[in-house]
Structure formats: structure tokens, C-alpha cells
Design goal:
- By secondary structure, the protein is α+β, with helices and mostly antiparallel strands.
- The protein has 2 domains: 7-196 and 346-407, 3-Layer(bba) Sandwich (FAD/NAD(P)-binding domain); 200-341, no CATH class.
- It contains 15 helices and 20 strands.
- It has helices at residues 15-26, 42-47, 60-65, 71-80, 83-92, 113-125, 179-184, 206-212, 243-247, 249-259, 274-281, 290-298, 302-314, 324-331, 387-407, and strands at 7-11, 30-35, 55-56, 97-99, 104-107, 129-132, 135-139, 145-149, 152-156, 160-163, 190-196, 200-201, 216-224, 227-235, 239-241, 262-267, 334-338, 340-341, 349-354, 371-373.
- Helix 1 (15-26) runs parallel beside helix 15 (387-407) and helix 11 (274-281) crosses helix 14.
- The longest helix has 21 residues, at 387-407.
- It is elongated and about 85 Å long.
Length: 409
């Protein structure tokens, strides 16, 4: 396949890749976006199924801190394409945005599909080509990009390449992490891909698992070490997941991988006044069952009572044997031992990827001149809340600008 001197191959048709394509096309480059899937933006569409959380409205210093150790490496890219720019971009595509009660930013349509359709139409009008069902398989002996297609193998020799293949979560949507071996073969340092924003496994009793699988623990406060998060968690058949769990997943994951377990504490009534709750639990229960008395006196949901019972049984006692003071202490810090991390295929995102010291300031791989990388391929992680998409968009812009500068050098 012959190409012009301005041809850029972008591998991966997610937010980072399509944003890099837009930047390059606007700069006059000839752009082809290659993707292994039959359509573009599959993971983007999946992320928007429950409401597309584009970004977050909090002040930029706090926003940047969400990227933890990667903040110094992502700072310039996000400052150059901040949340306000992402909202302007969305609105230019006819998708107005709004700030939810949590500070998260959504399109008014609340879905990803209208935004993606408008975006693909604009890219088409800019001359961007999509080459779907093209699975990248590395480079050949001549240094050309190799793709496996339904019609056989294809070789492409672009002037520049932008890699935006995602991490390794949700592999059925295309981001399977297979690219790591191709880059490692070129001596590019890759941090191991690990689950991020993931659930964890817990050895629930059969009774608890069968009764409460899928039930939410609402308005709880989760504590692990020095880290505390308020939110919601969901009991699964194999363990626990949910927004509050995801917010602690980096710390919990590292502890589980290091020690084989992590002890999470859950406050079931974080806003209750301790003295008042103790007094209510000290009342005479009369003829009602202890579970019914506990539910009325503490205002706990059935799943919260079940979780408390699980913890008490693990200590060799029943809830009814605890004094009111001990019962309150348990309710406000139920210990849940996590014994494993849910598989990366079930995680919302992944940690690990291309080490930042392998990239220059233009997001070009130092060992592979003319090859750029962006998005979740890079070694960063962030909580849910718009931070994942924001960094993917922003690094896509940065890599696109870097590739454009390379073309013009």
C-alpha cells in the first residue's frame, strides 16, 4: 500500500485516536485510522451506556491531582486541552453539556452515540479514512506496519504513526493489550498491565452470596489505611465492586498483590451520632426478632445487616451476642477482607503501559522516531468521574500535535 509523504497512520479508533486524527486532518495531513473492530469507538459507546461522563468540573489543580504519580507527565497535555476545551469541542459537534450534582460533566443527550456519530461525520468531511477490521500485528522486516484483515495481510508505510490501542480492560471491545509484545520487542519499556477501577474478590458465605448478590450498600464510607471514600458499593457473587471501591482500587490492588489480602472497613451509618445510635440499640427489643429490631433501631438495609452478620461470624460470634457499644463499633467499621483482584477483562480501565520516560514532550517514542502514543496505552490511571476520558482526549490532542510537528520538520 503506497502512501504520500504526509500520510499518518493512527492505530485505534477510540477517543485518543479519533482526537489525534482530527488534529492531524485540520493540520493538512492525510490520515487513516486503523482498528481491529468492525466499527469505531466501541469502548467509548460502552462507557456511555449509563450516561457519558465526559469530564469533571472541579478546579484544575484538584483535577490534575487525580492522576497521582502520572500528574507531572499529563499536566501539560491536560492544561493544553482542559475540561473547558473538551466541553467546547462537544458543543461544537452539537452536543451541549451540563454539570451534574456530583460535579461530573455529561452531554445533555446523556449518551455517547449522538456525539460519536457527529464526530465521525466531521472526520469524514475532513478527509479522515477509517480502515476497520484491520488488526495491527507489529512491523515487518522493512519497518512497515502490518495489519491482518479479512482479505489477508496488508503492509503500510506512513510518514508517522500514532498508537492509541487502549489498555487491556474490556478486551472484547478491542483493547486487549496485545500491542505490548510488539513494543517490548523494540526495547520499549512497558509497565505490566493491571486492573484499575476494578472489583475485588471476597470469600462470602454461601448464604450471604445467594441472598445479597447484586445488592447495593448505599451512603457508606469506605476506609483503607489513610484513604477514605464516601459512596456506594455493590455485593457481587465473587466479591465487591462499585464507585467507592473503584476510588480506592489502586491502593487496594497494590496491597492485595503485595500481601495477598487487604482489609477494607465499611461504615454503614457514617452520619449517625454514636451516642444516639447506642441508645437506640440499648432499648428493649421485646418479642421481635433481633434482625427486625436491628433494622428498625439502626435503619440498616437488609444487605447491611447481612454484611454485619458476616463480619461477626468471622469473629466467632453472632450480632445478638454483642453489646450495644460493640455493635455500634462494628456497624461503623465492618471489616471486609479482600483476597483477590477481579480479572482485568472485567475492570473499567487498566493501569500500566508505556513508561513515560520512553516518550519525549511531543508524546513520541524516543526509540521509534515518528511513532507517537496516547490514551490508555500510557502508564497512568485515574478514578472514574470523567478523568479517564479527559486524559485520553488530551493526550490524543498532544500526540496529534506532536505528529503534525514531525511531519513539518
Amino acid at each position: 500500500m503506497s502512501t504520500t509523504s504526509q500520510h499518518v497512520a493512527i492505530i485505534g479508533a477510540g477517543p485518543a485516536g479519533l482526537m489525534a486524527a482530527e488534529v492531524l486532518a485540520q493540520g493538512g495531513a492525510e490520515v487513516t485510522v486503523y482498528d481491529a473492530m468492525p466499527s469505531a469507538g466501541r469502548k467509548f459507546l460502552m462507557a456511555g451506556r449509563g450516561g457519558l461522563n465526559l469530564t469533571h468540573s472541579e478546579p484544575l489543580p484538584q483535577f490534575l491531582a487525580r492522576y497521582r504519580e502520572a500528574t507531572p507527565h499529563l499536566k501539560a497535555a491536560i492544561e493544553a486541552f482542559p475540561p473547558s476545551a473538551l466541553r467546547d469541542w462537544s458543543e461544537a459537534l452539537g452536543q451541549e453539556t451540563f454539570v451534574g450534582s456530583s460535579g461530573r460533566v455529561f452531554p445533555k443527550a446523556f449518551k455517547a452515540s449522538p456525539l460519536l456519530r457527529a464526530w465521525l461525520r466531521r472526520l469524514d468531511s475532513q478527509g479522515v479514512k477509517l480502515a476497520l477490521r484491520h488488526r495491527w500485528s507489529g512491523w515487518d522486516e522493512q519497518g512497515r506496519l502490518r495489519f491482518q484483515t479479512p482479505d489477508g495481510s496488508v503492509a503500510v508505510e506512513p510518514r508517522a504513526t500514532v498508537l492509541t490501542l487502549g489498555g487491556a480492560s474490556w478486551p472484547r471491545l478491542g483493547s486487549d493489550g496485545a500491542w505490548a509484545e510488539f513494543l517490548a520487542a523494540r526495547a520499549v519499556k512497558i509497565s505490566p498491565l493491571r486492573p484499575a477501577n476494578s472489583g475485588f474478590t471476597v470469600a462470602w458465605s454461601d448464604i450471604f452470596r445467594d441472598r445479597f448478590e447484586g445488592q447495593p450498600l448505599k451512603g457508606v464510607v469506605l476506609t483503607f489505611g489513610q484513604h477514605t471514600v464516601r459512596g456506594e458499593a455493590i455485593v457481587t457473587r465473587t466479591g465487591i465492586e462499585g464507585g467507592a471501591i473503584y476510588a480506592l482500587s489502586a491502593e487496594l490492588r497494590e496491597a492485595v498483590l503485595r500481601d495477598g489480602r487487604a482489609m477494607l472497613n465499611i461504615a454503614l451509618r457514617p452520619d449517625a451520632e454514636i451516642g444516639e445510635l447506642t441508645a437506640r440499640l440499648s432499648a428493649v427489643k421485646g418479642k421481635q426478632s433481633f434482625s427486625n429490631f436491628l433494622r428498625k433501631a439502626s435503619n440498616l438495609s437488609p444487605v447491611a445487616i447481612g454484611l454485619s452478620q458476616e463480619a461477626a461470624k468471622a469473629s466467632g460470634v453472632s450480632l445478638s451476642q454483642l453489646s450495644p457499644a460493640d455493635l455500634v463499633r462494628l456497624i461503623q467499621a465492618v471489616p471486609v477482607q479482600l483476597n483477590g483482584v477481579s480479572p482485568i477483562a472485567r475492570a473499567i480501565s487498566s493501569a500500566g503501559g508505556i513508561a513515560f520516560d520512553e516518550l519525549d514532550d511531543a508524546f513520541m517514542l524516543r526509540r521509534l522516531p515518528g511513532v507517537f502514543a496516547a490514551g490508555e496505552m500510557l502508564d497512568w490511571e485515574a478514578p472514574t468521574g470523567g478523568y479517564l476520558l479527559q486524559a485520553s482526549f488530551a493526550t490524543g490532542v498532544a500526540a496529534g500535535r506532536g505528529a503534525l510537528k514531525w511531519l513539518n520538520s
